[in-house]
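Might you be able to consider the sequence and fold that I enclose below?
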Amino acid sequence: MINYEGGHLGRNKGCGLAGEKLSKNYQIKFSFPKINLFDCDKALKQIEGLKGNIFLGGDHSITYALVKGFKRKFKKFGLVVFDAHPDCCKPFKTVTHEDWLRKLIEEKTIKKKDVLLVGIREIDKTEVDFLKGIKIVRCNEINNAKLMDFFEKYKYIYLSLDIDVVDPKDAPGTGCRVKNGIKGNTLLQVIKEIKKFKNIKRIDIVEFNPLLDKNKKTITLAKKILQELI
């Protein structure tokens, strides 16, 4: 569990509570590392050094640190990001949930050609040019061959899942809701299909906010997702 939410920019306060909520009622042991919640740079450095295969956030900026740590072991890998947003805004002073992917690319941690964005539908004008060269699968393309082709190409995959990729009707518990997202059941089916490749080596689930979760729809879906991935 990573309770860090220092990169949410005021848009999803409370997402740091998600890990503890999601980890209940599982037979496997989850760890709760102590993260410096008052210094963003120190926190991300701590997160970068964490060991493990499945991480529950927290805001999406944790993926920046987790990918950097992942590269220490796997030099060549594909990064698949399910998200309503590209997270490629012009960089802030410290890493946030709006620019973490752009920072990874600009710092040459990963190349654009090794990134696949799935489900994006809200793009800032500062991101348009930067997205050239990055593979994108839109919500209405989720069942086509482009996604599966990407998984076939790589021996190792890092999978990052921002819960706001799901349509708000199925997952209202997040701070950056965008309509016309992927249906919850569709996402579960896609996860079942990509699991068959057996090359997903690290996973994070981020941006779920229990404080915004109406009728517990989001936690119910998130637990199903986690169950599929474990």
The chain has a mean pLDDT of 92. DSSP finds seven helices and six strands in the chain. The chain has one domain: 15-229. The CA atoms of residues 84 and 164 lie 6 Å apart.
